[in-house]
Amino acid sequence: MSEALERAVALPVSDADPFAHEVLLDPEPLHQALREAGPVVYLSRYDVHALARYEHVHAALADWQHFESGSGVGLANFRHEKPWRPPSLLLEADPPRHDAPRRVLSEILAPPALRRLRTRWAAVAEELVDQVLRDATEFDAFVALAEAFPLRAFPDAVGLGPDGRENLLPYGNMAFNAFGPRNDLVAADAHRVAELSAWVNAQCTREALSADGFGAQIWAAADRGDLTHEQAPLVVRSLLTAGVDTTVHGLAACLYAFATHPSEWQRLRERPELARTSFDEAVRWQSPVQTFFRTATTDVTVAGTVVPRGTKILMFLGAANRDPGRWHDPDRFDLTRDPSGHVGFGMGPHQCVGQHVARLEAEALLTALARRVQRIELTGTPHRHPNNTLRSWAALPVRVQTVA
Ligand code: QZP
Hints:
By secondary structure, the chain is α+β, with helices and mostly antiparallel strands. The chain contains 17 helices and 13 strands. The chain has helices at 3-9, 21-25, 28-37, 54-62, 99-108, 111-135, 141-158, 168-177, 184-189, 193-203, 214-224, 232-242, 245-260, 262-270, 275-286, 317-320, 355-372; strands at residues 13-14, 41-43, 48-51, 67-68, 138-140, 291-296, 300-302, 305-307, 312-316, 373-378, 383-385, 392-395, 397-402. A six-stranded mixed β-sheet has the order 1-2-3-9-6-4. A three-stranded antiparallel β-sheet has the order 5-13-10. A two-stranded antiparallel ribbon has the order 7-8. A hairpin with a 6-residue loop joins β11 and β12 (392-395). The longest helix is centred in the first third of the chain and has 25 residues, at 111-135. It binds 4-(2-methylpropyl)benzoic acid (QZP).
């Protein structure tokens, strides 16, 4: 038998369902099984290939020529199935079409452009933390902090009006479910697709946006000719889709990490400049964005396995971020490690364009908390909320001891 055939025969097959509730709520056992099964695993239930090892996830995300996004980064192949909404100009496009919107947004969301938000968000965080700690020492940290802070900071920064902001999280929950199969989670949201989409689309017009936010800056880029005026509302839509639930569950990951690792909380309190690193370590450790897909543009060989052209490939970010081949003691949340290189924000040309915004939010909230809170501990079982893409939360009951 030729070497190539031998390898082809060896392609491991799994009938596991990565989108089943019990897996979404506790994904690590499947991640370990997939990493150990081989560099590429065929998922028979969905007729897709899966990558779960760091090396191969990283390489495939960097190789946009062979692993495209333009066919959609969910299970649905846009070349055969009508997308549930007009495709994103950023997420669901490849170079060169991807490049202009990406350039515009990456400048608007770059660290120098965010400087003016730093003091503002520090004040928003202090006010929120003050309010929460004034009311109680036991509370749901998911609702009171992880949800509340981004909702106070981000929509204002985009320039949204005051009405309808309660639609942001449900819209995101729906959009992130839509990357998965059409399972019960998608069905549960189906009755709100039209209403939520109409609200979000209405917020993307120039008239709906204040003059000083990210949204207005996107429209200004269109006026300069860096984008077309047809593209501008879709780029605003990307902010509203990708910018809220991700940070909410990323902050929840931080709070969960600290509530279960008291020594790391003390370390952060002693060295508050670790706030950003601790956010990245929490993103590595929990991977708020668990998975998305790419599509093979040609027959492409991964570690000796030919992935046929047109095949969807499921990237397990969460599995890569805990690959013992890449990380020492990967299951440990550890502020002494260097988490850089994690793929929790993706990798390559599509790597999260909003990551500096997310880090700034985390820095503001964690810094304010670290100043006021000596101890944070769970008082009950944290509850997760199943979502086809996000490792999301429903409740994080905690008790805190404040600084005297
Ligand atoms: C969602 C968009 C992890 C990604 C799938 C997050 C995401 C990024 C961009 C958009 C939506 O452009 O709408």
